[in-house]
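For the sake of transparency, this paper describes our internal protein records without simplification. Such a record has a labelled line for the sequence and another for the backbone structure tokens. Nothing more is needed to write down the fold, since each code stands for a local backbone conformation. For reference, a complete record is included directly beneath this paragraph.
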Amino acid sequence: MPHVVFITGASAGIGAACARAFAAAGDRVVLAARSEDRVAALADELNAAHGDDTALAVALDVTDAEAHARVVADLPAPFDAVDVAVLNAGLAKGLRPVWENTSREVDQMVDTNVKGVLNGIRALVPDMLARGRGHVVTIGSTAGHAVYAGGVVYCATKHALLAINEGLKVDLHGTPLRATAVSPGLVETDFSLVRFDGDAERADAVYADTNALTADDVADAVVYCAHAPERVNVAELLVTPRVQSGYTMTARGEEAEGL
């Protein structure tokens, strides 16, 4: 029986890659994102490739707790019994000292990266408990293990996410539900483009002269965790490119050749 997988931030990057990977594995996917047009296009792509009722697109701002609960409650069959929640929506804004972060940037990161995950847990876990089946996968980061200059707020949100994941498993003790954090290092997506407000030159420089992970690499890790035998709970899976060491060290140029 295929899983029903609810994916936030599914319009691009890791979320879209997870949608394609789960669909290719025979699962059904609910694609949730603020960009309704983009998730609708992805749903059409997946339904054409894998058959009708493979994908469902829903418009969702994860920072809106009431909307999150409403979207989950209104899911139609055969998407209404969610087995796996991939809580992926997240972002960083700016790369400046913490005292220079604007209140808007702080709110965006905390509301999306922390409250958005909590909203997903609150909306999805009760029904999983009622059915005795479920798995919450949050997309963390190596930024949850180390702090780097200019990333204080973002790193703090990812540290919080790891605490939420660990605490969720504690709260689920004695139930059949699983909780996992998949924490990637440097991944080449539109993450930096969002961080730098559309400055493509600055975003491209983040990935220049190195060999970063792809969104597909992270999606492979997520699918592995979700498809592991039911007796297995991967508490956290750290995934970094070979060029990255010690969370904040990335080989570039000649040093990165062959890596």
In short: The chain has eight helices and nine strands. The helical segments are 13-24, 36-50, 65-73, 103-131, 152-171, 191-195, 200-207, 215-227. Residues 92 and 145 are 16 Å apart (CA to CA). The chain has a mean pLDDT of 94.
